[in-house]
């Protein structure tokens, strides 16, 4: 059975699907939706506060010296992906709705994941300290770069309006709690570290709140009536193509720059991933007043595909001779 369980969705993905179903059948309305928005904003602030308190400065210092690898990972995350999203427009745009293509472009502008990039690098016996540094720095840089990239790529290629004060809002809603967490790390860092299970619940609970609120708004605006089944199938194909090209690009860059096998693994798992934890809260701010549910749908699907594919790749790397 273990041979086939890697193809199954993980538990959190099942929670996400369940949340989408609940929001589709029982969306929040009126004052209930307002209340969920407030609760969601508080949950997001708490999430980034805890990320700030949890982020190890020692790990960053240990990995920061490997600057060539980090620059390559950042280039894959913030340059290669947006170029792919724009270059594939003639192929992908006819397959999906305008809102879903906007979501694909937004996905391309996001930072890398932290937990799964490090976990897969460790599983594949890659350069874990460098993975910690790259993934953490990518998440922090994304707070600044993602809204700027979205303002350029999404508006230019999808003609989708975004909130141009998003940088300020993200700094207030995401960066400020993150900085406060870093400041408080000295007093609460050990407490945070010892309660990983509780903090994982807060992380995932915050994301589920955002998903429920976003999809409630989208369903109220007719998300499923305006998204035909062929467009959903086209989205699956689009996410698979995007991930395949990103993985290929990371492999090529690793060979061009002659990195060691451990560094190539770090590049592969750090440069090909996109963060669901950062992406959904950012979408809520950047695309304020729009159908956020449709925009984050590509990210949710890409997240599951990248987990399944990278799990198989990490398993293969782990079996190589020592």
Automatic annotation (TrEMBL):
The GO cellular component terms are: plasma membrane
Pfam families in UniProt: SBF_like
Show the InterPro entries listed in the entry. Answer: Na+/solute_symporter_sf (IPR038770), Put_Na-Bile_cotransptr (IPR016833)
Q: Name the source's superkingdom.
A: Bacteria
Parts of the chain that traverse the membrane: 12-29, 35-55, 67-88, 100-120, 140-160, 166-185, 235-254, 275-295
Gene3D superfamilies, per database record: 1.20.1530.20
State the UniProt keywords alphabetically: Membrane, Transmembrane, Transmembrane helix
- Name of the protein in its database record: Bile acid:sodium symporter
Instruction: Name the species this protein comes from.
Output: Bordetella genomosp. 4
């Amino acid at each position: 059975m273990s041979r086939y369980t890697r193809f199954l969705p993980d538990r959190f993905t099942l929670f996400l699907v369940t949340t989408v179903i609940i929001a589709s059948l029982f969306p929040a309305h009126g004052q209930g939706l307002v209340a969920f928005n407030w609760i969601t904003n508080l949950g997001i602030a708490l999430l980034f506060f805890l990320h700030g308190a949890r982020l190890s400065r020692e790990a960053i210092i240990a990995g920061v010296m490997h600057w060539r690898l980090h620059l390559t990972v950042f280039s894959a995350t913030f340059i290669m992906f947006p170029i792919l999203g724009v270059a594939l427009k003639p192929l992908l745009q006819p397959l999906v709705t305008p809102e879903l293509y906007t979501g694909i472009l937004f996905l391309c502008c996001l930072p890398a994941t932290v937990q799964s990039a490090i976990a897969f690098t460790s599983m594949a016996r890659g350069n874990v300290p460098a993975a910690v540094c790259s993934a953490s720095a990518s998440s922090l840089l994304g707070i600044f770069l993602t809204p700027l990239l979205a303002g350029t790529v999404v508006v230019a290629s999808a003609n989708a309006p975004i909130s141009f004060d998003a940088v300020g809002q993200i700094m207030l809603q995401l960066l400020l709690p993150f900085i406060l967490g870093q400041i408080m790390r000295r007093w609460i860092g050990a407490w945070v570290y010892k309660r990983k299970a509780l903090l994982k619940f807060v992380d995932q609970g915050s994301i589920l709140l955002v998903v429920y609120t976003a999809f409630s708004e989208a369903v109220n605006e007719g998300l499923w009536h305006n998204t035909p089944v062929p467009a959903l199938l086209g989205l699956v194909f689009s996410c698979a193509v995007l991930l395949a090209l990103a993985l290929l690009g990371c492999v090529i860059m690793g060979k061009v720059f002659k990195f060691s096998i451990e560094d190539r693994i770090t590049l592969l798992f750090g440069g090909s991933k996109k963060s669901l934890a950062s992406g959904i809260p950012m979408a809520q701010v950047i695309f304020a007043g729009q159908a956020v549910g449709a925009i984050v749908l590509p990210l949710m699907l890409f997240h599951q595909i990248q987990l399944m594919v990278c799990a198989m790749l990490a398993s293969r790397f782990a079996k190589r001779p020592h």
